[in-house]
Design a protein that fits this description.
The protein has helices spanning about 35-50, 70-85, 100-105, 110-115, 130-135, 170-180, 210-220; strands at about 5-10, 15, 20, 30, 55-60, 90-95, 120, 155-160, 160-165. With about 220 residues, the chain is α/β, with parallel strands linked by helices. The chain is globular, with a radius of gyration of 17 Å.
């Protein structure tokens, strides 16, 4: 598929396959990146269309999950540099006991303050349809449903600084964007979405194939 990306110099936006991504071509920006499929794609897009200015990449390495995000995100950054040629990157790894959306969003203001970023990005997506999401973990155990409810339209900008451009699309659309940008075979295999514990992953040497994130990835990409 031929890539069709529109840029608007007046409003600093990208439109990629009908997905609008506010961005700054010249100013410093910051993005939370776990090394998963969603945040890795957003990082690639920002790097590909950046002109100048540092991109600060923040990674939260969860001690309970073997701190794998530190390695996964570093691998993703290296691959994105190879693919885009953009290397004005500052990678910040924060080691925490537990990482969830509350931890991440509570640190967005700190990211902005430390990096003096014009925009701070998160690549959170919407859930799959409810029946699919419930099949991953059960209707009454779906802790992701409230924050990522696909029935709720959420703003992509919060306080004119914090940007979640994928918040109203699910991973099926993320897969389409990978295909659209031609990085399904090059970037996607480097990413890791599994959040399985030590006992389920043979000491973090493989994916568990049973956690929410593995099942969502399988649903969208047809592979773990």
């Amino acid at each position: 598929m031929k890539e069709n990306v529109k840029t608007n110099m007046l409003t600093d936006t990208l439109v990629i396959d009908n997905i609008t991504i506010p961005y700054s071509k010249y100013k410093t920006i910051s993005i939370s990146c776990s090394g998963g499929a969603d945040s890795s794609l957003l990082l690639y897009i920002l790097m590909k269309y950046k002109q100048t200015g540092t991109i600060h990449v923040y990674t939260y390495a969860n001690n309970l999950k073997g701190r794998l995000a530190a390695k996964s995100s570093a691998n993703v950054i290296e691959k994105c540099i190879q693919l885009t040629g953009y290397y004005d990157i500052a990678h910040h790894v924060l080691y925490v006991d537990k990482h969830d959306s509350k931890v991440m969003f509570s640190n967005l203001s700190l990211q902005k303050e430390i990096t003096k970023s014009a925009i701070v990005y998160s690549a959170i997506t919407a859930n799959p349809p409810k029946d699919i999401a419930d099949s991953f973990c059960g209707e009454h155990k779906n802790s992701e449903q409230q924050d990522r409810d696909p029935a709720i339209q959420r703003p992509t900008f919060i306080s004119d600084t914090f940007c979640t451009p994928f918040t109203n699309i699910n991973k099926k659309k993320i897969k389409e964007l990978y295909d659209y940008l031609g990085v399904t075979k090059s970037l996607f295999p480097i990413t890791r979405s599994c959040e399985g514990f030590k006992s389920k992953t043979e000491n973090f040497t493989k994916t568990c194939n049973t956690c929410w994130w593995c099942l969502e990835r399988k649903w969208a990409f047809e592979t773990f």
